[in-house]
C-alpha cells in the first residue's frame, strides 16, 4: 500500500494544473511576442510609422528579462512590472539613502517596496543615477532658467549614457522615457545618444495605463496644496511621453536599402531582363 500511495502521489504531481499566475504569465509572453512592433512607433530615422494604427501599449519588457531601474521615485513603476507584467528579475534603485528617507518623501512607497520584495525582486537605496542607468531623468529644480535646466539635464544624460555603456551587455538596450514637448525636446536626446556611440533603435509612446498602480513621482517629492493635502500640481502620468530604446551603433540593426528602380522594359525584351536595374 505505501508504494501504491507514493506512485499515485507522483502521478498527481505530474498532472498538476498550472497556477493562474503561471497562465497569465504565459499569456503576457505570447501577447508581447505578437506585437513587438505595436503602438505609436518611429523608425530609426525618427519619422513616425504612419501606417501603424495599432494603439495597444508597447511593453519593452519580458518576464524573463533582467531589468535594472534607476531613479524610481515611489517604486510604483517597478511594482507594476512585478505584479502585472510578471517580471521576475527586477532590481529597482532609488536615490534616497534608506527606506525612512524614501517614505518621508513618498509615504505610500513602503507598500510598493513590500510588493516588490515579496516576489523576489530587489530594492537598492542610495544609487546615484549619474553612475548607472536612468529612466524619466531630471535633475530637479536647480534653476528656473530654461536654458540652464536644459544644460543641466543634458549633462545628466551624457553622464548616464557614458556610465551605462560600461556595463551594457552585447546586444543590450538602454531605455529612456521623456515627456514630449518643450523643454524636453530641447534636450535633443537622439543627438546626445549619437555622440555617446548610441543609436535609437526605436521609439514609441509611453502609456502609463499599461502599468496599473503606477504614478509619476516628481524629483521634489510629494506635492501638497495650501491646505497641506497631497495632490497638488500636475500629474505626470497624464502627460504625453515617449520612450526611446538605444543600442550601441555597432549592435543596432542596419536599415534595409530600398531596391533600385527597374528599367522600363521594351516590347522586344524577354523575361530574363526582369532583374536588371539602374
TrEMBL record:
One of its GO terms (biological process) is rRNA base methylation. It holds the Pfam family BMT5-like. Residues 1-58, 245-278 are annotated as: Disordered. Residues 14-24 have a biased composition (Basic residues). Residues 40-52 have a biased composition (Polar residues). Residues 269-278 have a biased composition (Acidic residues). One of its GO terms (molecular function) is rRNA (uridine-N3-)-methyltransferase activity. One of its GO terms (cellular component) is cytoplasm. Residues 68-218 form the 25S rRNA (uridine-N(3))-methyltransferase BMT5-like domain. This is 25S rRNA (uridine-N(3))-methyltransferase BMT5-like domain-containing protein. It comes from Cytospora schulzeri.
Amino acid at each position: 500500500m505505501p508504494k501504491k500511495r507514493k506512485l499515485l502521489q507522483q502521478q498527481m504531481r505530474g498532472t498538476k494544473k498550472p497556477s493562474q499566475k503561471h497562465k497569465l504569465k504565459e499569456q503576457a509572453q505570447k501577447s508581447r511576442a505578437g506585437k513587438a512592433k505595436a503602438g505609436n512607433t518611429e523608425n530609426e530615422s525618427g519619422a513616425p510609422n504612419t501606417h501603424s494604427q495599432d494603439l495597444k501599449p508597447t511593453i519593452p519588457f519580458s518576464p524573463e528579462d533582467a531589468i535594472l531601474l534607476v531613479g524610481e521615485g515611489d517604486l510604483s513603476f517597478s511594482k507594476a512590472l512585478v505584479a502585472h507584467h510578471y517580471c521576475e528579475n527586477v532590481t529597482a534603485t532609488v536615490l534616497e539613502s534608506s527606506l525612512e528617507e524614501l517614505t518621508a518623501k513618498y509615504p505610500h512607497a513602503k507598500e510598493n517596496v513590500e510588493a516588490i520584495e515579496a516576489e523576489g525582486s530587489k530594492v537598492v537605496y542610495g544609487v546615484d543615477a549619474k553612475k548607472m542607468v536612468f529612466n524619466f531623468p531630471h535633475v530637479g529644480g536647480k534653476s528656473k532658467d530654461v536654458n540652464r535646466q536644459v544644460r543641466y539635464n543634458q549633462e545628466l544624460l551624457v553622464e548616464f549614457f557614458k556610465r551605462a555603456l560600461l556595463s551594457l551587455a552585447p546586444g543590450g538596450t538602454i531605455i529612456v522615457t521623456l515627456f514630449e514637448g518643450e523643454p524636453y525636446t530641447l534636450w535633443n536626446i537622439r543627438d546626445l545618444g549619437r555622440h555617446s556611440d548610441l543609436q535609437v533603435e526605436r521609439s514609441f509612446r509611453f502609456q502609463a495605463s499599461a502599468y496599473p498602480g503606477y504614478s509619476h513621482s516628481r524629483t521634489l517629492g510629494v506635492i501638497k496644496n495650501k491646505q497641506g493635502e497631497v495632490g497638488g500640481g500636475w500629474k505626470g502620468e497624464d502627460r504625453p511621453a515617449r520612450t526611446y530604446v538605444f543600442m550601441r551603433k555597432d549592435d543596432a540593426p542596419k536599415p534595409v536599402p530600398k531596391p533600385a528602380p527597374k528599367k522600363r522594359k521594351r516590347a522586344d525584351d524577354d523575361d530574363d531582363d526582369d532583374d536588371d536595374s539602374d
